[in-house]
Amino acid sequence: MDKSADAFRTISEAAEELDVPQHVLRFWETRFSQIRPMKRGGGRRYYRPEDMDLLRAIRGLLYGEGYTIRGVQRLLKERGVRAVMALPGTGGSSASASEPQSSPDRAEGEADAHEAADVFSHMSEALRAALGDIEDAQRILRAAHAH
After folding, report:
1. What domain range includes position 110?
2. pTM of whole model > 0.70?
3. Which end of the chain lies in a sparser environment, N or C, as judged by fewer CB atoms within 10 Å?
4. Residues 94 and 130 in one domain
5. What is the pLDDT of residues 18-37, one digit of tens each?
6. The pLDDT value given to residue 88
């Protein structure tokens, strides 16, 4: 069942529509403060139509135009969300051809990939530590309940 363009999207629907894994969308949220989906109970994300437009623009710049994460961050800071969504190759309306485009930098892209791996590694360690804390709390509660 296709949703209307005005419908909110869950993270799985957004990921499918953008053809990126869900963890990439979560990672982009850590790198682009402009991505702010609504969050409901349990932290479930709901992407508004304008969130989807921004995600399409970011995806187009990263995957289609060869920008790095830092390059897109710079564009968002310097030009703003609306201007970035209007750039050519982002799925939005065209910006003027005279606007300068930053060229992709392979070393910067590799640094972004390493940074992403570090973030996910850190998140995994934090989750493992939290799980250990929860298991410890369960043991304490069981022992207290047994007495």
Report:
1. 105-147
2. no
3. N
4. no
5. 999 999 999 999 999 999 99
6. 75
